[in-house]
Amino acid sequence: MTSEYALDYARRGWHVFPCSPITKAPLVGCDLDSGGNKIAGTGGVKKATTDAAQISDWWDRWPAAMIGVACGPRSGIWAIDPDAPKKPGEPDGRANWAALSRKHGCRPTHTHLTPGGGQHLLFKWRADRPLTNSEGNITGTGINVRGDGGYVIAPPSKRHDGKAYEVAEPLDFFNFAEAPDWLYAMLRPRPRDQVSNSSTPSSSRSSSHPIARIQGILNRVASTTEGDRNKVLFWGAMRVVEMVIEKEVPPSEGDRAFAALADAAQHAGLAHSEIVRTLQSARARA
Fold first, then answer.
1. The pTM of the whole model exceeds 0.70
2. Contact criterion met (CB below 8 Å) for 66 and 21
3. What's the gap between Cα 92 and its chain centre?
4. What is the structure's pLDDT at 213?
5. 22: which of 59, 136, 157, 263 is 20 to 30 A away, CA to CA?
6. Using an 8 Å Cβ cutoff, are 67 and 9 in contact?
7. Distance from first CA to last CA of the chain, Å, rounded?
């Protein structure tokens, strides 16, 4: 049973929580105040725990749930997530990661194989080199980053179609390598002055490169807490639409940005149905 693996991961120090086998989104909601109102920033990955009783309760409620593992200092790991292209023309994260690894070198580490043909390469967390979900200089390559505030799905979780996450190499299981210096250098956070810190950002224009501005938008969406996620996702989608209309980026780049926005919103904890509805609403206004 998946619950037994979730409990084993927790005993090893991973903070886990249940995720939907359909959308990969967290199944656990946020806390409520005395008036029954949601408390922002308390749901989803924030609920990840090592408490055996809580984990058992969750999997009693959702026996088919996939195992979400919180990345960052709590679990002591972070991940590189090279994706397979979902449609023609999209970047192949697996090929791009393989090319980077061949060129610069990277030690073997605990790795998962995903049902979609991608990978999760897990590295040891370093307090002196903290990372979020920012892709830095590898944005647009199909290689995602899961740091503090992000999560990965762990084996042997199964999707709704029966396809499972697997351990790539049993000898590397729970042997986490130090990430190479060149990778940290590529993932240095980009300046975010092009995006305001308010929940309804207004500075959508700057002299920065369009791809850098898109990355700033993705960073903002991924880091938004409960209560503002729909609003910020819509803002980000409209900025991308404007960039396509004004020919700052080609339509193909806009499509990739929308796919990345959906991923960023999912990892911020927004439900799949809300993500789809919000992005469709933004496209309809183009």
1. no
2. yes
3. 17
4. 82
5. 136
6. yes
7. 47
